[in-house]
Amino acid sequence: MDSAILSLLGAFVLSIIGLFVFIWSLRKGLLVENPAAASVIFARGEIGRVDDPALAGAARDSMQQAAAGDAQAAHAAADEAELRDRIASDRSTAFPVFMFVAFACFWLIVGSFAGLTSSIKLHEPDWLTNQAWLTFGRIRTVHLTAVLYGWITNAALGMIIWLLPRLLRTRLHGAVWTMLGGALINTGIAAGIGAISAGWSDGMEYLEIPWQIAVFILVGFVFVVLPVLFTLVNRKVEHLYVSVWYMVAALLWISLLFLVGKLPGVHTGVQQATTNWWYGHNVLGLWFTPVSVGAIYYFLPKIIGRPVRSYNLSILGFWTLAFFYGQVGGHHLIGGPVPGWLTTLSIVQSLMMVIPVIAFSINMGGTLKGRMHLARYSPTLRFMMFGGLMYFASSVQGSLEALRSVNQVTHFTHFTVAHAHLGAYAFVSMVLFGAIYFMMPRVLNWEWPYPKLITLHFWLAAIGVTIYFVGLTIGGWLQGLAMLDAARPFIDSVNVTLPWLKWRSVGGSLMVLGHLVFVGHFLAMALRFGPTRTGAALFAHNNELELAYGK
Ligand code: HEM
Ligand code: HEM
Q1: Which atom, in ligand 1's list, is nearest to the CA of 428?
Q2: Which ligand is nearest the CA of 110, by number?
Q3: What is the reported pTM?
Protein backbone atom coordinates (compact mmCIF):
# COMPACT_ATOMS: atom_id res chain seq x y z
CA MET A 1 0.00 0.00 0.00
CA ASP A 2 1.50 3.39 -0.92
CA SER A 3 1.89 6.32 1.47
CA ALA A 4 -1.03 8.40 0.13
CA ILE A 5 -3.48 5.56 0.70
CA LEU A 6 -1.98 4.78 4.10
CA SER A 7 -2.32 8.38 5.24
CA LEU A 8 -5.94 8.57 4.01
CA LEU A 9 -6.78 5.31 5.72
CA GLY A 10 -5.05 6.51 8.89
CA ALA A 11 -7.07 9.72 8.82
CA PHE A 12 -10.26 7.71 8.34
CA VAL A 13 -9.56 5.37 11.25
CA LEU A 14 -8.67 8.37 13.44
CA SER A 15 -11.92 10.09 12.57
CA ILE A 16 -13.95 6.98 13.40
CA ILE A 17 -12.17 6.69 16.78
CA GLY A 18 -12.91 10.40 17.30
CA LEU A 19 -16.56 9.79 16.52
CA PHE A 20 -16.75 7.05 19.19
CA VAL A 21 -15.07 9.32 21.74
CA PHE A 22 -17.64 11.94 20.87
CA ILE A 23 -20.56 9.50 21.32
CA TRP A 24 -19.03 8.38 24.63
CA SER A 25 -18.78 11.99 25.83
CA LEU A 26 -22.43 12.54 24.90
CA ARG A 27 -23.45 9.46 26.92
CA LYS A 28 -21.40 10.63 29.88
CA GLY A 29 -23.30 13.91 29.78
CA LEU A 30 -20.16 15.93 29.07
CA LEU A 31 -22.09 17.98 26.55
CA VAL A 32 -25.22 18.96 28.43
CA GLU A 33 -27.22 21.86 27.01
CA ASN A 34 -25.49 24.97 28.22
CA PRO A 35 -27.24 28.31 27.70
CA ALA A 36 -24.63 30.06 29.85
CA ALA A 37 -21.90 29.05 27.37
CA ALA A 38 -23.94 30.47 24.49
CA SER A 39 -24.13 33.81 26.32
CA VAL A 40 -20.42 34.38 26.89
CA ILE A 41 -20.18 36.69 23.90
CA PHE A 42 -22.45 39.15 25.68
CA ALA A 43 -21.44 41.38 28.55
CA ARG A 44 -24.02 41.80 31.32
CA GLY A 45 -26.96 43.79 30.01
CA GLU A 46 -26.19 43.19 26.34
CA ILE A 47 -28.63 40.36 25.64
CA GLY A 48 -31.62 41.93 23.96
CA ARG A 49 -29.61 44.85 22.69
CA VAL A 50 -28.96 44.87 18.94
CA ASP A 51 -25.51 45.81 17.70
CA ASP A 52 -24.28 46.75 14.26
CA PRO A 53 -21.39 49.22 14.12
CA ALA A 54 -22.11 49.73 10.41
CA LEU A 55 -25.30 51.57 11.45
CA ALA A 56 -25.48 55.21 12.52
CA GLY A 57 -27.22 56.10 15.80
CA ALA A 58 -30.75 56.75 14.51
CA ALA A 59 -30.75 53.65 12.31
CA ARG A 60 -29.57 51.57 15.24
CA ASP A 61 -32.41 52.94 17.39
CA SER A 62 -34.91 51.91 14.69
CA MET A 63 -33.38 48.45 14.61
CA GLN A 64 -33.62 48.22 18.40
CA GLN A 65 -37.28 49.17 18.23
CA ALA A 66 -37.89 46.59 15.51
CA ALA A 67 -36.34 43.96 17.78
CA ALA A 68 -39.40 44.59 20.01
CA GLY A 69 -39.98 42.64 23.15
CA ASP A 70 -36.50 43.04 24.58
CA ALA A 71 -36.43 46.80 24.29
CA GLN A 72 -36.05 47.32 28.03
CA ALA A 73 -32.78 45.34 27.84
CA ALA A 74 -31.27 48.27 25.98
CA HIS A 75 -31.30 50.21 29.24
CA ALA A 76 -29.87 47.48 31.45
CA ALA A 77 -26.64 48.29 33.27
CA ALA A 78 -23.52 47.28 31.36
CA ASP A 79 -20.61 45.34 32.80
CA GLU A 80 -17.94 48.00 32.66
CA ALA A 81 -15.04 45.70 33.47
CA GLU A 82 -15.87 43.41 30.57
CA LEU A 83 -16.38 46.29 28.15
CA ARG A 84 -13.06 47.77 29.17
CA ASP A 85 -11.36 44.42 28.46
CA ARG A 86 -12.99 44.46 25.05
CA ILE A 87 -11.75 47.96 24.36
CA ALA A 88 -8.23 46.88 25.36
CA SER A 89 -8.48 43.85 23.05
CA ASP A 90 -9.65 46.03 20.16
CA ARG A 91 -6.81 48.46 20.73
CA SER A 92 -4.21 45.70 20.71
CA THR A 93 -5.47 44.28 17.43
CA ALA A 94 -6.39 47.44 15.51
CA PHE A 95 -3.18 47.82 13.55
CA PRO A 96 -2.61 44.19 12.49
CA VAL A 97 -6.28 43.81 11.59
CA PHE A 98 -6.18 46.93 9.44
CA MET A 99 -3.09 45.57 7.69
CA PHE A 100 -4.69 42.20 6.90
CA VAL A 101 -7.95 43.77 5.71
CA ALA A 102 -6.09 46.30 3.53
CA PHE A 103 -4.13 43.46 1.88
CA ALA A 104 -7.37 41.53 1.44
CA CYS A 105 -8.99 44.51 -0.33
CA PHE A 106 -6.02 44.91 -2.64
CA TRP A 107 -6.03 41.26 -3.68
CA LEU A 108 -9.79 41.26 -4.06
CA ILE A 109 -9.49 43.90 -6.78
CA VAL A 110 -6.58 42.11 -8.51
CA GLY A 111 -8.43 38.77 -8.33
CA SER A 112 -11.71 40.24 -9.53
CA PHE A 113 -10.23 41.70 -12.70
CA ALA A 114 -8.29 38.51 -13.36
CA GLY A 115 -11.55 36.52 -12.92
CA LEU A 116 -13.52 38.79 -15.22
CA THR A 117 -10.77 38.66 -17.84
CA SER A 118 -10.74 34.83 -17.70
CA SER A 119 -14.51 34.78 -17.98
CA ILE A 120 -14.63 37.03 -21.05
CA LYS A 121 -11.88 34.99 -22.69
CA LEU A 122 -14.05 31.88 -22.56
CA HIS A 123 -16.56 33.45 -24.98
CA GLU A 124 -14.18 35.87 -26.76
CA PRO A 125 -11.12 33.62 -27.21
CA ASP A 126 -9.29 36.06 -29.51
CA TRP A 127 -9.23 38.82 -26.89
CA LEU A 128 -5.82 39.62 -25.28
CA THR A 129 -3.81 36.84 -26.86
CA ASN A 130 -0.56 38.73 -27.48
CA GLN A 131 0.88 38.50 -23.97
CA ALA A 132 1.65 35.11 -22.46
CA TRP A 133 0.64 36.23 -18.97
CA LEU A 134 -2.81 37.15 -20.24
CA THR A 135 -3.56 33.73 -21.70
CA PHE A 136 -6.37 31.79 -20.00
CA GLY A 137 -4.20 29.21 -18.22
CA ARG A 138 -2.19 31.86 -16.43
CA ILE A 139 -4.76 34.58 -15.76
CA ARG A 140 -7.23 31.99 -14.39
CA THR A 141 -4.58 30.79 -11.98
CA VAL A 142 -3.73 34.35 -11.01
CA HIS A 143 -7.45 34.78 -10.27
CA LEU A 144 -7.51 31.69 -8.05
CA THR A 145 -4.37 32.58 -6.14
CA ALA A 146 -5.43 36.20 -5.65
CA VAL A 147 -8.94 35.44 -4.39
CA LEU A 148 -8.26 32.30 -2.34
CA TYR A 149 -5.00 33.29 -0.70
CA GLY A 150 -4.93 37.08 -1.21
CA TRP A 151 -8.56 37.91 -0.44
CA ILE A 152 -10.08 35.11 1.64
CA THR A 153 -6.99 34.16 3.62
CA ASN A 154 -6.02 37.74 4.52
CA ALA A 155 -9.59 38.67 5.44
CA ALA A 156 -9.93 35.47 7.49
CA LEU A 157 -6.66 36.13 9.36
CA GLY A 158 -7.71 39.73 10.07
CA MET A 159 -11.02 38.51 11.45
CA ILE A 160 -9.45 35.79 13.60
CA ILE A 161 -6.93 38.22 15.06
CA TRP A 162 -9.69 40.72 15.87
CA LEU A 163 -12.12 38.21 17.32
CA LEU A 164 -10.03 35.85 19.42
CA PRO A 165 -8.63 38.40 21.91
CA ARG A 166 -12.19 39.71 22.36
CA LEU A 167 -13.53 36.25 23.06
CA LEU A 168 -10.60 35.43 25.34
CA ARG A 169 -10.86 38.79 27.16
CA THR A 170 -7.21 39.58 26.75
CA ARG A 171 -4.99 41.62 24.50
CA LEU A 172 -3.30 40.12 21.45
CA HIS A 173 0.05 38.78 22.60
CA GLY A 174 2.78 39.28 20.01
CA ALA A 175 0.97 41.70 17.68
CA VAL A 176 4.25 42.64 16.00
CA TRP A 177 4.89 39.00 15.09
CA THR A 178 1.48 38.70 13.46
CA MET A 179 2.34 41.73 11.35
CA LEU A 180 5.65 40.23 10.35
CA GLY A 181 3.74 37.06 9.49
CA GLY A 182 1.29 39.09 7.40
CA ALA A 183 4.16 40.77 5.55
CA LEU A 184 5.74 37.37 4.76
CA ILE A 185 2.46 35.82 3.64
CA ASN A 186 1.73 38.72 1.31
CA THR A 187 5.26 38.75 -0.05
CA GLY A 188 4.74 35.07 -0.86
CA ILE A 189 1.39 35.76 -2.53
CA ALA A 190 2.80 38.63 -4.61
CA ALA A 191 5.87 36.62 -5.65
CA GLY A 192 3.65 33.59 -6.34
CA ILE A 193 1.35 35.58 -8.60
CA GLY A 194 4.39 37.01 -10.38
CA ALA A 195 5.80 33.51 -10.87
CA ILE A 196 2.50 32.13 -12.17
CA SER A 197 2.18 35.05 -14.60
CA ALA A 198 5.69 34.27 -15.83
CA GLY A 199 4.75 30.62 -16.39
CA TRP A 200 6.48 29.17 -13.33
CA SER A 201 4.04 27.02 -11.36
CA ASP A 202 3.99 23.76 -9.38
CA GLY A 203 1.06 22.66 -11.53
CA MET A 204 -1.29 21.36 -8.81
CA GLU A 205 -4.61 23.14 -8.36
CA TYR A 206 -4.65 25.53 -5.37
CA LEU A 207 -0.98 24.63 -4.84
CA GLU A 208 0.35 26.40 -7.93
CA ILE A 209 2.65 28.78 -6.06
CA PRO A 210 6.16 27.29 -6.48
CA TRP A 211 7.33 25.66 -3.25
CA GLN A 212 10.44 27.85 -3.09
CA ILE A 213 8.08 30.85 -2.70
CA ALA A 214 5.52 28.98 -0.62
CA VAL A 215 8.13 28.77 2.14
CA PHE A 216 7.49 32.48 2.82
CA ILE A 217 3.79 31.79 3.25
CA LEU A 218 4.42 28.86 5.56
CA VAL A 219 6.85 30.78 7.77
CA GLY A 220 4.39 33.71 7.74
CA PHE A 221 1.68 31.37 9.02
CA VAL A 222 3.92 30.23 11.86
CA PHE A 223 4.38 33.89 12.89
CA VAL A 224 0.62 34.34 12.96
CA VAL A 225 -0.30 31.05 14.61
CA LEU A 226 2.16 31.27 17.52
CA PRO A 227 0.89 34.65 18.86
CA VAL A 228 -2.67 33.35 18.53
CA LEU A 229 -1.78 30.27 20.60
CA PHE A 230 0.04 32.43 23.11
CA THR A 231 -3.03 34.66 23.41
CA LEU A 232 -5.14 31.53 23.95
CA VAL A 233 -2.87 30.35 26.74
CA ASN A 234 -3.05 33.76 28.43
CA ARG A 235 -6.82 34.04 28.26
CA LYS A 236 -8.91 35.48 31.06
CA VAL A 237 -12.01 33.38 30.40
CA GLU A 238 -12.84 29.92 31.62
CA HIS A 239 -15.09 28.87 28.76
CA LEU A 240 -14.00 28.79 25.12
CA TYR A 241 -16.88 29.97 22.94
CA VAL A 242 -17.52 27.77 19.91
CA SER A 243 -16.08 30.36 17.45
CA VAL A 244 -12.72 29.96 19.23
CA TRP A 245 -12.85 26.21 18.56
CA TYR A 246 -13.57 26.71 14.88
CA MET A 247 -10.97 29.41 14.33
CA VAL A 248 -8.05 27.99 16.28
CA ALA A 249 -8.62 24.53 14.80
CA ALA A 250 -8.81 26.04 11.29
CA LEU A 251 -5.50 27.87 11.78
CA LEU A 252 -3.76 24.66 12.87
CA TRP A 253 -5.37 22.65 10.07
CA ILE A 254 -4.38 25.03 7.26
CA SER A 255 -0.80 25.30 8.49
CA LEU A 256 -0.40 21.51 8.48
CA LEU A 257 -2.27 21.07 5.21
CA PHE A 258 -0.15 23.63 3.45
CA LEU A 259 3.05 22.08 4.79
CA VAL A 260 2.11 18.57 3.61
CA GLY A 261 0.63 19.77 0.31
CA LYS A 262 3.76 21.73 -0.60
CA LEU A 263 6.41 19.18 0.46
CA PRO A 264 8.53 18.98 -2.69
CA GLY A 265 9.37 15.72 -4.44
CA VAL A 266 7.39 13.45 -2.11
CA HIS A 267 4.27 12.71 -4.16
CA THR A 268 4.25 11.76 -7.81
CA GLY A 269 1.75 10.41 -10.34
CA VAL A 270 -1.63 9.22 -9.06
CA GLN A 271 -0.41 9.71 -5.49
CA GLN A 272 0.22 13.34 -6.31
CA ALA A 273 -3.33 13.76 -7.63
CA THR A 274 -4.68 12.14 -4.47
CA THR A 275 -2.64 14.42 -2.23
CA ASN A 276 -3.55 17.40 -4.40
CA TRP A 277 -7.28 16.83 -3.80
CA TRP A 278 -6.81 15.85 -0.18
CA TYR A 279 -5.37 19.37 0.15
CA GLY A 280 -7.77 20.88 -2.40
CA HIS A 281 -10.96 20.12 -0.54
CA ASN A 282 -9.46 20.52 2.90
CA VAL A 283 -8.41 24.08 2.16
CA LEU A 284 -12.12 24.71 1.56
CA GLY A 285 -13.50 22.43 4.25
CA LEU A 286 -10.98 22.86 7.04
CA TRP A 287 -9.91 26.46 6.46
CA PHE A 288 -12.51 28.64 4.68
CA THR A 289 -15.55 26.80 6.04
CA PRO A 290 -14.74 26.64 9.79
CA VAL A 291 -13.52 30.24 9.80
CA SER A 292 -16.74 31.42 8.17
CA VAL A 293 -19.02 29.21 10.28
CA GLY A 294 -17.18 30.39 13.42
CA ALA A 295 -17.73 33.98 12.29
CA ILE A 296 -21.47 33.46 11.84
CA TYR A 297 -21.66 31.92 15.32
CA TYR A 298 -20.24 35.14 16.74
CA PHE A 299 -21.59 37.94 14.57
CA LEU A 300 -25.13 36.77 13.96
CA PRO A 301 -26.16 36.39 17.64
CA LYS A 302 -24.23 39.55 18.50
CA ILE A 303 -26.04 41.65 15.91
CA ILE A 304 -29.52 40.52 16.88
CA GLY A 305 -28.72 40.55 20.61
CA ARG A 306 -29.76 36.94 21.23
CA PRO A 307 -27.56 33.95 22.19
CA VAL A 308 -27.32 31.06 19.80
CA ARG A 309 -30.32 28.73 20.20
CA SER A 310 -28.57 25.45 20.98
CA TYR A 311 -24.97 25.52 22.07
CA ASN A 312 -24.78 21.71 21.88
CA LEU A 313 -25.75 21.70 18.23
CA SER A 314 -22.91 24.11 17.52
CA ILE A 315 -20.44 21.74 19.20
CA LEU A 316 -21.94 18.76 17.35
CA GLY A 317 -21.46 20.75 14.11
CA PHE A 318 -17.82 21.37 14.97
CA TRP A 319 -16.92 17.76 15.72
CA THR A 320 -18.80 16.23 12.82
CA LEU A 321 -17.18 18.74 10.47
CA ALA A 322 -13.80 17.75 11.89
CA PHE A 323 -14.57 14.01 11.51
CA PHE A 324 -16.08 13.99 8.05
CA TYR A 325 -14.51 16.81 6.04
CA GLY A 326 -10.97 15.42 6.09
CA GLN A 327 -11.77 12.55 3.73
CA VAL A 328 -14.02 14.15 1.13
CA GLY A 329 -11.19 15.17 -1.27
CA GLY A 330 -11.47 11.90 -3.21
CA HIS A 331 -14.78 13.06 -4.72
CA HIS A 332 -12.74 15.25 -7.09
CA LEU A 333 -11.27 12.09 -8.60
CA ILE A 334 -14.44 10.08 -9.24
CA GLY A 335 -13.82 8.12 -12.42
CA GLY A 336 -10.08 8.77 -12.17
CA PRO A 337 -7.33 6.13 -11.94
CA VAL A 338 -7.55 5.81 -8.14
CA PRO A 339 -8.78 2.81 -6.12
CA GLY A 340 -12.58 2.51 -6.13
CA TRP A 341 -12.76 2.25 -2.33
CA LEU A 342 -11.03 5.60 -2.01
CA THR A 343 -13.67 7.45 -3.99
CA THR A 344 -16.48 5.46 -2.35
CA LEU A 345 -15.10 6.44 1.07
CA SER A 346 -15.05 10.08 0.06
CA ILE A 347 -18.60 9.89 -1.31
CA VAL A 348 -19.84 8.40 1.97
CA GLN A 349 -18.05 11.15 3.94
CA SER A 350 -19.45 13.79 1.56
CA LEU A 351 -22.97 12.62 2.37
CA MET A 352 -22.18 12.50 6.10
CA MET A 353 -21.42 16.21 5.82
CA VAL A 354 -25.16 16.87 5.87
CA ILE A 355 -24.97 16.31 9.67
CA PRO A 356 -22.86 19.41 10.52
CA VAL A 357 -24.64 21.41 7.83
CA ILE A 358 -28.11 20.60 9.13
CA ALA A 359 -26.99 21.07 12.74
CA PHE A 360 -25.76 24.56 11.81
CA SER A 361 -28.84 25.46 9.78
CA ILE A 362 -31.38 24.37 12.41
CA ASN A 363 -29.42 26.26 15.02
CA MET A 364 -29.25 29.47 13.03
CA GLY A 365 -32.92 29.19 12.02
CA GLY A 366 -33.83 28.84 15.70
CA THR A 367 -31.60 31.74 16.73
CA LEU A 368 -33.06 34.04 14.08
CA LYS A 369 -36.67 33.00 14.63
CA GLY A 370 -38.79 36.14 14.87
CA ARG A 371 -35.78 38.36 14.15
CA MET A 372 -35.16 37.84 10.43
CA HIS A 373 -36.84 41.16 9.65
CA LEU A 374 -33.88 42.90 11.32
CA ALA A 375 -31.96 42.25 8.10
CA ARG A 376 -33.97 45.17 6.68
CA TYR A 377 -32.13 47.45 9.12
CA SER A 378 -28.72 45.88 9.52
CA PRO A 379 -26.38 45.61 6.52
CA THR A 380 -24.01 43.33 8.42
CA LEU A 381 -26.84 40.95 9.30
CA ARG A 382 -27.87 40.84 5.64
CA PHE A 383 -24.41 39.63 4.58
CA MET A 384 -24.28 37.09 7.44
CA MET A 385 -27.74 35.68 6.75
CA PHE A 386 -27.06 35.41 3.04
CA GLY A 387 -23.72 33.69 3.73
CA GLY A 388 -25.28 31.28 6.25
CA LEU A 389 -28.03 30.30 3.83
CA MET A 390 -25.48 29.74 1.08
CA TYR A 391 -23.41 27.50 3.38
CA PHE A 392 -26.44 25.26 3.54
CA ALA A 393 -27.09 25.51 -0.22
CA SER A 394 -23.51 24.91 -1.36
CA SER A 395 -22.98 22.01 1.00
CA VAL A 396 -26.19 20.19 0.18
CA GLN A 397 -25.44 20.75 -3.50
CA GLY A 398 -21.90 19.44 -2.93
CA SER A 399 -23.15 16.28 -1.19
CA LEU A 400 -25.41 15.52 -4.15
CA GLU A 401 -22.68 16.42 -6.65
CA ALA A 402 -20.46 13.79 -5.03
CA LEU A 403 -22.88 11.00 -6.01
CA ARG A 404 -21.47 9.02 -8.93
CA SER A 405 -24.63 9.41 -11.01
CA VAL A 406 -24.58 13.21 -10.70
CA ASN A 407 -20.81 13.60 -10.93
CA GLN A 408 -20.81 11.64 -14.18
CA VAL A 409 -22.67 14.58 -15.75
CA THR A 410 -21.14 17.51 -13.89
CA HIS A 411 -17.43 16.60 -13.70
CA PHE A 412 -15.26 18.54 -16.21
CA THR A 413 -18.09 21.06 -16.73
CA HIS A 414 -18.90 24.64 -15.72
CA PHE A 415 -21.41 23.20 -13.22
CA THR A 416 -18.47 22.63 -10.85
CA VAL A 417 -17.36 26.25 -11.29
CA ALA A 418 -20.88 27.44 -10.40
CA HIS A 419 -20.78 25.33 -7.23
CA ALA A 420 -17.29 26.66 -6.44
CA HIS A 421 -18.58 30.25 -6.49
CA LEU A 422 -21.66 29.34 -4.47
CA GLY A 423 -19.28 28.13 -1.75
CA ALA A 424 -16.28 30.44 -2.03
CA TYR A 425 -18.25 33.58 -2.91
CA ALA A 426 -21.93 33.40 -1.88
CA PHE A 427 -21.02 31.73 1.42
CA VAL A 428 -17.43 32.53 2.43
CA SER A 429 -16.86 35.93 0.80
CA MET A 430 -20.27 37.29 1.86
CA VAL A 431 -19.58 36.33 5.49
CA LEU A 432 -16.18 38.03 5.29
CA PHE A 433 -17.72 41.20 3.81
CA GLY A 434 -20.20 41.26 6.70
CA ALA A 435 -17.45 40.73 9.26
CA ILE A 436 -15.37 43.57 7.80
CA TYR A 437 -18.37 45.92 7.91
CA PHE A 438 -18.79 45.05 11.58
CA MET A 439 -15.11 45.25 12.56
CA MET A 440 -13.81 48.30 10.75
CA PRO A 441 -15.58 51.07 12.73
CA ARG A 442 -13.88 49.66 15.83
CA VAL A 443 -10.57 49.11 14.12
CA LEU A 444 -10.35 52.54 12.51
CA ASN A 445 -12.31 54.42 15.11
CA TRP A 446 -14.38 55.95 12.36
CA GLU A 447 -17.81 55.20 10.93
CA TRP A 448 -18.49 53.91 7.47
CA PRO A 449 -18.84 57.30 5.73
CA TYR A 450 -21.59 56.46 3.23
CA PRO A 451 -23.86 53.69 4.63
CA LYS A 452 -25.91 53.52 1.41
CA LEU A 453 -22.83 52.13 -0.35
CA ILE A 454 -23.01 49.08 1.93
CA THR A 455 -26.52 48.36 0.67
CA LEU A 456 -25.39 48.96 -2.93
CA HIS A 457 -22.48 46.53 -2.42
CA PHE A 458 -24.79 43.90 -0.99
CA TRP A 459 -27.21 43.99 -3.91
CA LEU A 460 -24.50 44.08 -6.58
CA ALA A 461 -22.81 41.07 -4.99
CA ALA A 462 -26.01 39.13 -4.30
CA ILE A 463 -27.58 39.71 -7.73
CA GLY A 464 -24.22 39.22 -9.48
CA VAL A 465 -23.47 35.87 -7.88
CA THR A 466 -27.07 34.68 -8.43
CA ILE A 467 -26.76 35.37 -12.18
CA TYR A 468 -23.32 33.73 -12.17
CA PHE A 469 -24.53 30.64 -10.33
CA VAL A 470 -27.84 30.07 -12.13
CA GLY A 471 -26.33 30.67 -15.59
CA LEU A 472 -23.36 28.37 -15.16
CA THR A 473 -25.39 25.67 -13.43
CA ILE A 474 -27.71 25.41 -16.41
CA GLY A 475 -24.86 25.80 -18.93
CA GLY A 476 -22.70 23.24 -17.12
CA TRP A 477 -25.46 20.64 -16.93
CA LEU A 478 -26.26 21.01 -20.67
CA GLN A 479 -22.52 20.76 -21.39
CA GLY A 480 -22.30 17.52 -19.39
CA LEU A 481 -25.27 15.97 -21.17
CA ALA A 482 -23.82 16.93 -24.55
CA MET A 483 -20.43 15.40 -23.68
CA LEU A 484 -22.03 12.14 -22.57
CA ASP A 485 -24.01 11.78 -25.79
CA ALA A 486 -21.73 9.80 -28.11
CA ALA A 487 -23.92 10.69 -31.10
CA ARG A 488 -23.17 14.41 -30.78
CA PRO A 489 -19.90 15.99 -31.93
CA PHE A 490 -17.73 17.41 -29.13
CA ILE A 491 -18.15 20.98 -30.41
CA ASP A 492 -21.84 20.80 -29.44
CA SER A 493 -20.80 20.66 -25.80
CA VAL A 494 -18.84 23.89 -26.33
CA ASN A 495 -21.50 25.74 -28.31
CA VAL A 496 -24.25 24.91 -25.87
CA THR A 497 -22.39 26.76 -23.09
CA LEU A 498 -21.78 30.03 -24.96
CA PRO A 499 -24.89 32.02 -23.91
CA TRP A 500 -24.40 30.91 -20.30
CA LEU A 501 -20.74 31.91 -20.31
CA LYS A 502 -21.83 35.38 -21.43
CA TRP A 503 -24.32 35.51 -18.55
CA ARG A 504 -21.46 34.61 -16.23
CA SER A 505 -19.55 37.66 -17.46
CA VAL A 506 -22.63 39.83 -16.79
CA GLY A 507 -23.01 38.46 -13.24
CA GLY A 508 -19.23 38.67 -12.71
CA SER A 509 -19.22 42.34 -13.82
CA LEU A 510 -21.82 43.16 -11.17
CA MET A 511 -19.71 41.39 -8.55
CA VAL A 512 -16.61 43.31 -9.65
CA LEU A 513 -18.57 46.58 -9.49
CA GLY A 514 -19.62 45.62 -5.97
CA HIS A 515 -15.98 45.06 -5.03
CA LEU A 516 -15.01 48.48 -6.38
CA VAL A 517 -17.75 50.06 -4.27
CA PHE A 518 -16.59 48.09 -1.22
CA VAL A 519 -12.89 48.87 -1.58
CA GLY A 520 -13.58 52.52 -2.51
CA HIS A 521 -15.69 52.83 0.64
CA PHE A 522 -12.97 51.18 2.71
CA LEU A 523 -10.42 53.69 1.37
CA ALA A 524 -12.77 56.60 2.04
CA MET A 525 -13.13 55.37 5.61
CA ALA A 526 -9.39 54.94 6.09
CA LEU A 527 -8.86 58.47 4.78
CA ARG A 528 -11.46 59.82 7.22
CA PHE A 529 -14.01 60.90 4.64
CA GLY A 530 -17.65 61.57 5.48
CA PRO A 531 -19.41 63.34 8.31
CA THR A 532 -18.41 62.63 11.89
CA ARG A 533 -21.45 61.21 13.64
CA THR A 534 -21.68 60.12 17.22
CA GLY A 535 -23.81 57.04 16.66
CA ALA A 536 -21.16 54.39 16.32
CA ALA A 537 -19.04 53.05 19.12
CA LEU A 538 -15.98 55.23 18.94
CA PHE A 539 -13.89 53.80 21.70
CA ALA A 540 -10.97 56.20 21.50
CA HIS A 541 -13.16 59.28 21.99
CA ASN A 542 -14.32 58.34 25.43
CA ASN A 543 -15.44 55.26 27.20
CA GLU A 544 -18.92 56.60 27.86
CA LEU A 545 -19.84 56.41 24.21
CA GLU A 546 -18.61 52.86 24.10
CA LEU A 547 -20.65 51.96 27.15
CA ALA A 548 -23.74 53.78 25.90
CA TYR A 549 -23.96 51.89 22.65
CA GLY A 550 -22.68 48.49 23.72
CA LYS A 551 -20.24 46.25 21.89
C1 HEM B 1 -20.79 19.12 2.23
C2 HEM B 1 -20.06 19.98 1.67
C3 HEM B 1 -19.54 19.88 0.25
C4 HEM B 1 -19.42 18.80 -0.57
C5 HEM B 1 -19.78 17.35 -0.28
C6 HEM B 1 -18.84 19.27 -1.80
C7 HEM B 1 -18.63 18.49 -2.92
C8 HEM B 1 -18.02 18.91 -4.09
C9 HEM B 1 -17.90 18.15 -5.31
C10 HEM B 1 -18.46 16.74 -5.51
C11 HEM B 1 -17.22 18.90 -6.20
C12 HEM B 1 -16.96 18.55 -7.66
C13 HEM B 1 -15.73 17.74 -7.86
C14 HEM B 1 -15.52 17.45 -9.32
O15 HEM B 1 -16.41 16.89 -9.96
O16 HEM B 1 -14.44 17.77 -9.81
C17 HEM B 1 -16.88 20.14 -5.54
C18 HEM B 1 -16.13 21.14 -6.10
C19 HEM B 1 -15.81 22.30 -5.44
N20 HEM B 1 -16.30 22.71 -4.22
FE21 HEM B 1 -17.51 21.69 -3.00
N22 HEM B 1 -18.62 20.62 -1.70
C23 HEM B 1 -19.02 21.02 -0.46
C24 HEM B 1 -18.98 22.30 0.06
C25 HEM B 1 -18.22 23.30 -0.48
C26 HEM B 1 -17.97 24.56 0.16
C27 HEM B 1 -18.56 25.01 1.50
C28 HEM B 1 -17.12 25.24 -0.66
C29 HEM B 1 -16.51 26.60 -0.46
C30 HEM B 1 -16.06 27.02 0.64
C31 HEM B 1 -16.84 24.40 -1.80
C32 HEM B 1 -16.00 24.72 -2.84
C33 HEM B 1 -15.75 23.93 -3.93
C34 HEM B 1 -14.84 24.32 -4.99
C35 HEM B 1 -13.99 25.60 -5.03
C36 HEM B 1 -14.88 23.30 -5.94
C37 HEM B 1 -14.12 23.26 -7.25
C38 HEM B 1 -12.87 22.50 -7.15
C39 HEM B 1 -12.11 22.52 -8.46
O40 HEM B 1 -11.32 23.44 -8.65
O41 HEM B 1 -12.34 21.64 -9.29
N42 HEM B 1 -17.53 23.23 -1.67
N43 HEM B 1 -17.39 20.13 -4.25
C1 HEM C 1 -13.89 36.89 -4.26
C2 HEM C 1 -14.45 36.44 -5.28
C3 HEM C 1 -14.21 35.13 -5.97
C4 HEM C 1 -13.82 33.91 -5.47
C5 HEM C 1 -13.52 33.56 -4.02
C6 HEM C 1 -13.69 33.02 -6.59
C7 HEM C 1 -13.28 31.69 -6.51
C8 HEM C 1 -13.01 30.88 -7.59
C9 HEM C 1 -12.65 29.49 -7.52
C10 HEM C 1 -12.51 28.68 -6.24
C11 HEM C 1 -12.45 29.04 -8.79
C12 HEM C 1 -12.04 27.60 -9.23
C13 HEM C 1 -13.28 26.91 -9.70
C14 HEM C 1 -13.07 25.59 -10.36
O15 HEM C 1 -12.03 25.34 -10.98
O16 HEM C 1 -13.98 24.73 -10.29
C17 HEM C 1 -12.68 30.16 -9.67
C18 HEM C 1 -12.56 30.10 -11.04
C19 HEM C 1 -13.01 31.09 -11.86
N20 HEM C 1 -13.62 32.28 -11.49
FE21 HEM C 1 -13.82 32.98 -9.62
N22 HEM C 1 -14.01 33.70 -7.73
C23 HEM C 1 -14.36 34.99 -7.38
C24 HEM C 1 -14.78 35.98 -8.21
C25 HEM C 1 -14.92 35.85 -9.57
C26 HEM C 1 -15.41 36.88 -10.45
C27 HEM C 1 -15.90 38.26 -10.03
C28 HEM C 1 -15.38 36.37 -11.70
C29 HEM C 1 -15.84 37.09 -12.93
C30 HEM C 1 -16.58 36.58 -13.84
C31 HEM C 1 -14.84 35.02 -11.63
C32 HEM C 1 -14.60 34.17 -12.70
C33 HEM C 1 -13.95 32.96 -12.64
C34 HEM C 1 -13.52 32.18 -13.80
C35 HEM C 1 -13.70 32.57 -15.25
C36 HEM C 1 -12.93 31.02 -13.31
C37 HEM C 1 -12.28 29.89 -14.13
C38 HEM C 1 -13.31 28.86 -14.43
C39 HEM C 1 -12.80 27.73 -15.27
O40 HEM C 1 -11.67 27.28 -15.08
O41 HEM C 1 -13.55 27.27 -16.15
N42 HEM C 1 -14.60 34.73 -10.31
N43 HEM C 1 -13.02 31.27 -8.91
Answers
A1: 30
A2: 2
A3: 0.93
